[in-house]
Amino acid sequence: MKKMTRRSFIRITAIGAGVLAAGGMGLKALISNSGLDTYSETRRLLGTFITITLVDDDQTRCVETVQDTFAEVERLSSILSRHDASSELSRLNSTGRLAGASSELVAVLERAQYCAELTGGAFDVTVKPLVELYQDHFAHYGAPPDAAAVAQTRQLVGYQMLTISGRDVALAKTGMGITLDGIAKGYIVDQAAALLRARGLTRVLVEAGGDLSLRGMRQDGHPWRVGISHPRALAGYYEVLESSNGCIATSGDYEAAFTADYSYHHIIDPRTGSSPTELASATVLANDTTYADALSTAALVLGMNDALALLERLSGVEALLIDKELHSRTTSGFSVASA
Questions:
Q1: 20 to 30 A from 166, CA-CA: which of 52, 156, 253, 265?
Q2: Who's near 339: CB < 8 A, 6+ residues apart?
Q3: d(Cα 214, Cα 245) in Å, to the nearest integer?
Q4: Residue 236 has what pLDDT?
């Protein structure tokens, strides 16, 4: 499994009030004050760090509920993760078809197809062959693939070649593959948050590698403060948001860059076969984290003007986009925390 770097888990984290929302595998923290407990635990799943933080007056309930929620996260990971060779997604990728797929995999793929149509193909989960082409070339040669290799691999990419019929899923061409890296974390965050709400927890923060859902207030009675990492600094934040009810996702060229100048990175434009060149970071706020996750990836691909034009049209969606010169623009309703 790919080694996690410091940058990998400071992209977007909850800050303030002594709540630790990003850290090492298996990390646990319990802070008590004024009759309320804040319980936070972090585990490594889906190729990233996932943190669950609860504020409640019942410590035992916090601990037990976090354990149950991580069990559900692990179950979903066994279906949706491409980092798990035995996952349902991996079986689909290895055979090109899957009969009787789980309702969870079908739900995520259907959302992915909707987002692909919405973004004109800027978000496309069939981009996996291109991502792996770049990963392999930089790993073996320290350089990008040539134009001929990119053109050939692009023939295996296109959301129109993914078909979903009931619970049967198929890829049209041998060699195609799906990566859910740009949507599965958001979906799992949403499912974890829903489980916590169903258990009666009203002060909740769930974060997975830059995708975040939060509800209620911190232990001190103030809204959660969420730092959007600076795309070119290892410490500090570009902006800080404040919210008591939100879903947020950030995508950035810095998350897995192939080159020091960030011109080649893990996000590939499915339409061109190369890394997008304009934006360094895209943070999207939406009504659910699944949607925010996909839209933040699409925004990075679309670039400043096209992304803003799309996001302004979408109900309940706001965004902060940062270009490679570190200039930023936002949608009309985006706001940051007061100092």
A1: 156
A2: none
A3: 6
A4: 79
CATH 1.10.3980.10 fits 88-171, yes or no: yes
The token pair at 273 is 């076969």
Q: What residue spans define the domains of the chain?
A: 88-171
Q: Which of the residue ranges 130-144, 148-162, 242-256 would you say has the lowest mean pLDDT? A: 242-256
Cβ(298)–Cβ(115) below 8 Å: yes
Q: Which two tokens stand for residue 82?
A: 């491409």
* CA distances for 40 relative to 37, 59, 207, 310, angstroms: 10, 11, 11, 36
Please report, for the chain, how many H helices and E strands are present, in that order: 8, 15
Category of 62 on φ-ψ map: left (φ > 0), alpha (ψ -120 to 50) or beta: alpha
Q: Which amino acid would we find at residue 336?
A: V
Q: What is the pTM of this model?
A: 0.89
Q: How far apart are CA 213 and CA 70, in angstroms?
A: 15
pLDDT tens, position by position, 229-280 = 899 987 778 999 989 899 999 999 998 999 999 999 999 999 999 999 999 9
Token duo for residue 125: 């989960």
Backbone angles phi, psi at 12, to 5 degrees: -150, 115
The values of phi and psi at residue 252, to 5°, are -150, 155
